[in-house]
Amino acid sequence: MHLSLVCLAKPILHGYFRSSCSWRVRIAFALKGIEYDQVPVHLIKDGGQQLTEQYKTLNPMQQVPAVEIDGITLSQSLAVIQYIDETRPGPRLLPEDPKKRAQVRMISDVIASGIQPLQNLYVIQKIGAEKVQWAHHFIDRGFQALEPILKQTAGKYCVGDEISMADICLVPQVYNAERFKVDLGQYPTIKRLNQVLLQIEAFKVSDPSCQPDTPADLRA
Amino acid sequence: MDTSEVPAHGGFALLTEQYKTLNPMQQVPAVEIDGITLSQSLAVIQYIDETRPGPRLLPEDPKKRAQVRMISDVIASGIQPLQNLYVIQKIGAEKVQWAHHFIDRGFQALEPILKQTAGKYCVGDEISMADICLVPQVYNAERFKVDLGQYPTIKRLNQVLLQIEAFKVSDPSCQPDTPADLRA
């Protein structure tokens, strides 16, 4: 009988407690009940540990997360999440119906392409003094689009009544919105969905407030 | 596949209330298909792949499929959003340097990734969504005067892909709304 040692090894997540993209992957692992190891990559200390030559071999984009799984290394959280979904049992992270699946990807991409890249650490460091207004602007703009989309697609969760990759993307983005003082009152659907999702175990255990690398002053 | 294309001239048409109903992000593209309207190109592409017969746009193997999505997202999340029209209009005077910087940065990451994953195409020997994302991004790179000499794998893949019929017929130089002075 042939045993694949590589597949028996736990996945390793290289991430940062407050990185929204790392958080997405943590939620996905938790929803699927997958145990994994975390290797913290501090984005500020030492000038940013994601900028070391060593980390660059894991992710040439020099961003978190990077995930070592099944003998390969993957970056880009949505690629990781869909890989997990396609190779592990447990609740589906994308719906069975192709149209609903497309809506999940659309919502996820509004966040992962349309909002988050415009307000991540690298970009706001480049923007400099105006960074809070810049981040606020792009989150607002994205949420102004997301709100009517979600009004149409949401049931109990972002798309219908099953938790999906869209919900996984939404919660960390709302956390970022709050960090940049975006007024969620303008986005009642987003607000409601976020509140419901925050009660779910997989979202709780993956929260930035309780990770191995959460600083003492930010611990829950 | 037969489609019809409705040009939304960059600038004014995107910001209309009418277009907003198609895509609340007020960006192109938006696709009306099978009774629904979808935005976000990768969501559209994967929907097409999952509902239409013909050559796969994502590989069958889950690891290769993940690599295709990873490469596509480096481009669609890591590069393009930082150099699209809306953002560079906001950046203002420094826009060429800004766009050049982000495309360079992304290509510096993409080159070693592709060195590892590419066969004849971006991932192995079958055309995929990764190739679909690469060619338009290289076109943008050239518009912003990025030196492709630094990225031999990207350059090679782009040259091979540009010879393929599907890439030729969808080229910006021959669309219904291509201005006369830019027509092939």
UniProtKB/TrEMBL annotation, chain A:
<dbReference type="GO" id="GO:0004364">
    <property type="term" value="F:glutathione transferase activity"/>
</dbReference>
<dbReference type="Pfam" id="PF00043">
    <property type="entry name" value="GST_C"/>
</dbReference>
<keyword id="KW-0585">Phenylalanine catabolism</keyword>
<dbReference type="GO" id="GO:0006559">
    <property type="term" value="P:L-phenylalanine catabolic process"/>
</dbReference>
<dbReference type="InterPro" id="IPR036249">
    <property type="entry name" value="Thioredoxin-like_sf"/>
</dbReference>
<keyword id="KW-0963">Cytoplasm</keyword>
<dbReference type="InterPro" id="IPR034330">
    <property type="entry name" value="GST_Zeta_C"/>
</dbReference>
<protein>
    <recommendedName>
        <fullName>Maleylacetoacetate isomerase</fullName>
        <ecNumber>2.5.1.18</ecNumber>
        <ecNumber>5.2.1.2</ecNumber>
    </recommendedName>
</protein>
<dbReference type="Pfam" id="PF02798">
    <property type="entry name" value="GST_N"/>
</dbReference>
<dbReference type="GO" id="GO:0006749">
    <property type="term" value="P:glutathione metabolic process"/>
</dbReference>
<keyword id="KW-0808">Transferase</keyword>
<keyword id="KW-0828">Tyrosine catabolism</keyword>
<dbReference type="InterPro" id="IPR004045">
    <property type="entry name" value="Glutathione_S-Trfase_N"/>
</dbReference>
<dbReference type="GO" id="GO:0005739">
    <property type="term" value="C:mitochondrion"/>
</dbReference>
<dbReference type="InterPro" id="IPR010987">
    <property type="entry name" value="Glutathione-S-Trfase_C-like"/>
</dbReference>
<dbReference type="GO" id="GO:0016034">
    <property type="term" value="F:maleylacetoacetate isomerase activity"/>
</dbReference>
<dbReference type="InterPro" id="IPR036282">
    <property type="entry name" value="Glutathione-S-Trfase_C_sf"/>
</dbReference>
<comment type="pathway">
    <text>Amino-acid degradation; L-phenylalanine degradation; acetoacetate and fumarate from L-phenylalanine: step 5/6.</text>
</comment>
<feature type="domain" description="GST C-terminal">
    <location>
        <begin position="97"/>
        <end position="216"/>
    </location>
</feature>
<dbReference type="InterPro" id="IPR004046">
    <property type="entry name" value="GST_C"/>
</dbReference>
<keyword id="KW-0413">Isomerase</keyword>
<dbReference type="InterPro" id="IPR005955">
    <property type="entry name" value="GST_Zeta"/>
</dbReference>
From TrEMBL, chain B:
<dbReference type="GO" id="GO:0005739">
    <property type="term" value="C:mitochondrion"/>
</dbReference>
<dbReference type="InterPro" id="IPR005955">
    <property type="entry name" value="GST_Zeta"/>
</dbReference>
<dbReference type="GO" id="GO:0006749">
    <property type="term" value="P:glutathione metabolic process"/>
</dbReference>
<dbReference type="GO" id="GO:0016034">
    <property type="term" value="F:maleylacetoacetate isomerase activity"/>
</dbReference>
<dbReference type="InterPro" id="IPR036249">
    <property type="entry name" value="Thioredoxin-like_sf"/>
</dbReference>
<dbReference type="Pfam" id="PF00043">
    <property type="entry name" value="GST_C"/>
</dbReference>
<feature type="domain" description="GST C-terminal">
    <location>
        <begin position="61"/>
        <end position="180"/>
    </location>
</feature>
<dbReference type="Pfam" id="PF02798">
    <property type="entry name" value="GST_N"/>
</dbReference>
<keyword id="KW-0413">Isomerase</keyword>
<comment type="similarity">
    <text>Belongs to the GST superfamily. Zeta family.</text>
</comment>
<dbReference type="InterPro" id="IPR034330">
    <property type="entry name" value="GST_Zeta_C"/>
</dbReference>
<dbReference type="InterPro" id="IPR010987">
    <property type="entry name" value="Glutathione-S-Trfase_C-like"/>
</dbReference>
<dbReference type="GO" id="GO:0006559">
    <property type="term" value="P:L-phenylalanine catabolic process"/>
</dbReference>
<keyword id="KW-0585">Phenylalanine catabolism</keyword>
<dbReference type="GO" id="GO:0004364">
    <property type="term" value="F:glutathione transferase activity"/>
</dbReference>
<dbReference type="InterPro" id="IPR036282">
    <property type="entry name" value="Glutathione-S-Trfase_C_sf"/>
</dbReference>
<keyword id="KW-0828">Tyrosine catabolism</keyword>
<dbReference type="InterPro" id="IPR040079">
    <property type="entry name" value="Glutathione_S-Trfase"/>
</dbReference>
<dbReference type="GO" id="GO:0006572">
    <property type="term" value="P:L-tyrosine catabolic process"/>
</dbReference>
<dbReference type="InterPro" id="IPR004045">
    <property type="entry name" value="Glutathione_S-Trfase_N"/>
</dbReference>
<feature type="domain" description="GST N-terminal">
    <location>
        <begin position="1"/>
        <end position="56"/>
    </location>
</feature>
<dbReference type="InterPro" id="IPR004046">
    <property type="entry name" value="GST_C"/>
</dbReference>
